[in-house]
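Translate structure to sequence.
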């Protein structure tokens, strides 16, 4: 009795081929089930999907307008903030002058007592 390696190799390859074929059939069945489930979900929500697709251009146009308005508001806010900073700096200068004048007046009246 002897072992024919050629027939043994062929037998192993046939066995592996059958296993791979069974795995492919199982995967194909699962893929078909998944596709049919997705198709069923799409059919159930077809009206909603059509509604969303029909309102999408208006929505994108509104988003464009809103972003443009936000950009304009941002420019106005930055200009206002800059002018507020300038006003604060000028008020600080005047406050320093007023404090200096009040300090001088206080020294004048405190020396007379």
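Result:
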């Amino acid at each position: 009795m002897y072992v024919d390696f050629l027939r043994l190799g062929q037998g192993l390859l046939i066995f592996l081929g059958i296993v791979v074929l069974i795995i492919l059939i199982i995967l194909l069945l699962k893929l078909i089930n998944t596709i049919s489930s997705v198709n069923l979900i799409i059919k159930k929500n077809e009206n909603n999907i059509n509604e969303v697709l029909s309102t999408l251009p208006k929505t994108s146009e509104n988003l464009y307008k809103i972003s443009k308005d936000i950009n304009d508001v941002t420019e106005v806010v930055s200009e206002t903030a800059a002018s507020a900073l300038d006003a604060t700096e000028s008020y600080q200068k005047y406050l320093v002058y007023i404090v200096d004048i009040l300090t001088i007046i206080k020294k004048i009246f405190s020396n007379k007592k």
